[in-house]
Amino acid sequence: MLDETHMGQAASVNGNRRIARCECGATLEGGSEAGLYEAVQLHLAQHHPQLLGAMGLDVVLQMAEDIGGTDASGSGH
Ligand SMILES: [Zn+2]
Predict the structure, then answer these.
(1) C-alpha of residue 2 to centroid of ligand 1, in Å
(2) Taking the model in full, what pTM does it have?
Protein backbone atom coordinates (compact mmCIF):
# COMPACT_ATOMS: atom_id res chain seq x y z
CA MET A 1 0.00 0.00 0.00
CA LEU A 2 1.33 3.38 -0.91
CA ASP A 3 1.61 5.74 1.97
CA GLU A 4 3.12 9.05 1.00
CA THR A 5 3.13 10.68 4.39
CA HIS A 6 6.49 12.32 3.93
CA MET A 7 5.52 14.28 0.86
CA GLY A 8 4.92 17.65 2.46
CA GLN A 9 7.77 17.52 4.89
CA ALA A 10 10.57 19.98 4.46
CA ALA A 11 13.74 18.04 3.99
CA SER A 12 16.24 18.94 6.63
CA VAL A 13 18.89 20.60 4.57
CA ASN A 14 22.39 20.88 5.88
CA GLY A 15 22.21 24.58 6.32
CA ASN A 16 20.94 27.23 8.56
CA ARG A 17 17.45 26.99 9.78
CA ARG A 18 15.38 30.02 10.41
CA ILE A 19 13.49 30.72 13.56
CA ALA A 20 11.31 33.58 14.68
CA ARG A 21 9.85 34.26 18.05
CA CYS A 22 6.27 35.29 18.24
CA GLU A 23 5.25 37.93 20.74
CA CYS A 24 3.28 35.25 22.58
CA GLY A 25 6.49 33.36 23.23
CA ALA A 26 6.08 30.68 20.60
CA THR A 27 9.08 29.82 18.49
CA LEU A 28 8.37 29.33 14.83
CA GLU A 29 10.83 27.47 12.72
CA GLY A 30 11.43 26.70 9.10
CA GLY A 31 14.13 25.19 6.95
CA SER A 32 14.18 28.24 4.76
CA GLU A 33 12.77 31.74 4.65
CA ALA A 34 9.72 30.49 2.80
CA GLY A 35 9.29 27.65 5.24
CA LEU A 36 9.53 29.97 8.18
CA TYR A 37 7.04 32.33 6.63
CA GLU A 38 4.63 29.45 6.21
CA ALA A 39 5.08 28.38 9.81
CA VAL A 40 4.42 31.93 10.98
CA GLN A 41 1.31 32.21 8.85
CA LEU A 42 -0.01 28.94 10.26
CA HIS A 43 0.68 30.07 13.80
CA LEU A 44 -0.99 33.40 13.23
CA ALA A 45 -4.02 31.75 11.67
CA GLN A 46 -4.41 29.59 14.73
CA HIS A 47 -3.48 31.96 17.51
CA HIS A 48 -3.53 35.53 16.23
CA PRO A 49 -5.87 35.68 13.26
CA GLN A 50 -6.07 39.44 13.67
CA LEU A 51 -2.38 39.71 12.81
CA LEU A 52 -2.53 37.63 9.67
CA GLY A 53 -2.73 40.56 7.29
CA ALA A 54 -0.14 42.58 9.16
CA MET A 55 2.71 40.14 8.98
CA GLY A 56 4.13 40.20 5.51
CA LEU A 57 7.12 38.24 4.39
CA ASP A 58 9.42 41.21 5.01
CA VAL A 59 8.20 41.53 8.60
CA VAL A 60 8.69 37.84 9.22
CA LEU A 61 12.20 38.00 7.83
CA GLN A 62 13.01 40.91 10.11
CA MET A 63 11.97 38.81 13.08
CA ALA A 64 13.93 35.83 11.85
CA GLU A 65 17.19 34.68 13.29
CA ASP A 66 19.21 31.93 11.78
CA ILE A 67 20.62 29.18 13.86
CA GLY A 68 23.59 27.18 12.81
CA GLY A 69 22.01 23.93 13.79
CA THR A 70 24.82 23.07 16.17
CA ASP A 71 23.45 23.26 19.66
CA ALA A 72 19.99 24.34 20.55
CA SER A 73 20.76 25.29 24.10
CA GLY A 74 17.84 24.18 26.15
CA SER A 75 16.62 25.78 29.32
CA GLY A 76 19.36 24.12 31.31
CA HIS A 77 18.85 21.31 33.65
ZN1 LIG B 1 1.96 33.76 18.79
Answers:
(1) 36
(2) 0.66
Asked whether 63 and 20 are in contact (CB, 8 A), the reply is yes
Does residue 36 have a pLDDT over 60?
yes
Would you say residue 45 lies in a domain?
Answer: yes
Estimate to the nearest angstrom the gap between the alpha carbon of 45 and the chain centroid. Answer: 14
Determine the structural domain holding residue 60 and report its residue range.
17-67
- Is the residue at 8 inside a domain? no
Rounded distance from Cα 5 to ligand 1 centre (Å)? 27
What is the 44 CA–ligand 1 centroid distance (Å)?
A: 6
Give the number of domains in the chain. 1
